Amino acid sequence: MLFSKKISIIGTGNMGEALLGGLLKAKLTDPENIIATDLQKERLKYIAEKWNVNTTTDNLKAVKFADIIIICVKPQGIKDLLTLIKPCIREEQLLITILAGIRTDTITKFIGKKNPVIRVMPNIPAVVDAGAAGLCLGQYAEDLHRQLAVKILKAVGEVEIVDEGQMDVITGLSGSGPAYIYMVIEALTDGGVMMGLPRNVATRLATQTVLGSAKLVKETGVHPAMLKDQVTTPGGSTISAINELEIHGLRPMLIRAVEVATNKSRELSKFLEDQNNLTDE
Fold it and tell me: Of 14, 22, 192, 218, which cross-links 202 as Cys (Cβ 3.0–4.6 Å)?
């Protein structure tokens, strides 16, 4: 479906490169159908050498090239970018935005055209094709556009379609979630070291334990509570450890973390739109 589409990736940081690489590794398109942009020529040299795609520092050139425009810039710079490119945007072009805090209707209003706009919130494991992304459709996005965006995102992980009002929750759960899990891995590793394991051994065991446990939940569809019960025996070491975690509030802390991150995302959304004066256009 994507094979003949021309794709521009504006901004080739970690997430932009992850999507570029995912498209090519999944053989969804050929390198000549992609153009990547960045402010840094050295970065573009690296991208061109690694992925054999077209590159440019000229965002106008990239927009004119594309059927699909994937915007992967920092949200603080979105007004300048949109001001530059909106005269060249054609209404049939699909805009996929990876912009924390910037709503689809804000983009549509600012460019003043009826382009299909799709907003995506991926997370950092996309760089190893194991991401979790939330995706919502703008006013003019139709099912074909949804299919295209899902195909692109599935090249680097899993995708969930949500209402735009839930995108801040996506940020609080899966967007920020890897940081919570890294802390869990770090703490388990430190526990192993404290009890006598070499750090490299403890790190490998902690990492594989988290990876394997997640895979078991995903592949079996069994509720995590039931899987937890399967590894606890009466009076055993696991139930004793679980009791300690309950005493110190592991579950309410994680729930609260998602809540706090969601609320902060909502605050930042308002701040970013006000900072960019996008609501006044």
Answer: 192
Q: How far apart are CA 167 and CA 271, in angstroms?
A: 16
CB atoms closer than 10 angstroms to residue 281: 14
Decide if 232 contacts 226 (C-beta within 8 A).
no
Q: Where are the domains of the chain?
A: 7-171, 177-262
Which is more confident, 257 or 100?
A: 257
pTM: 0.91
Say if residues 159 and 137 touch (Cβ distance below 8 Å).
no
- Cα first-last separation, the chain: 35
56 in Cβ contact with 81 (< 8 Å): no
Instruction: Provide the pLDDT for residue 281.
Output: 45
Angle, CA 103 vertex, CA 99 and CA 104 arms, to 5° = 100
Identify which of 32, 92, 94, 100 has the alpha carbon closest to the alpha carbon of residue 72: 100
What is the mean predicted confidence (pLDDT) over 120-144? 96
Supply the CATH classification number for the domain 7-171.
3.40.50.720
177-262: CATH architecture? Orthogonal Bundle (1.10)
Q: How far, CA to CA in Å, does 214 sit from each of 82, 193, 217, 259?
A: 39, 23, 5, 22
- Under the banding of pLDDT at 50, 70 and 90, the label for residue 276 is low
- How many CB atoms are located within 10 Å of the residue 89 CB? 18
Please answer whether residues 261 and 101 qualify as being in contact, where contact means their C-beta atoms are separated by less than 8 angstroms: no
**Continuous segment of H or E residues that includes residue 133:** strand 131-137
- One-letter amino acid for residue 177 of the chain: G
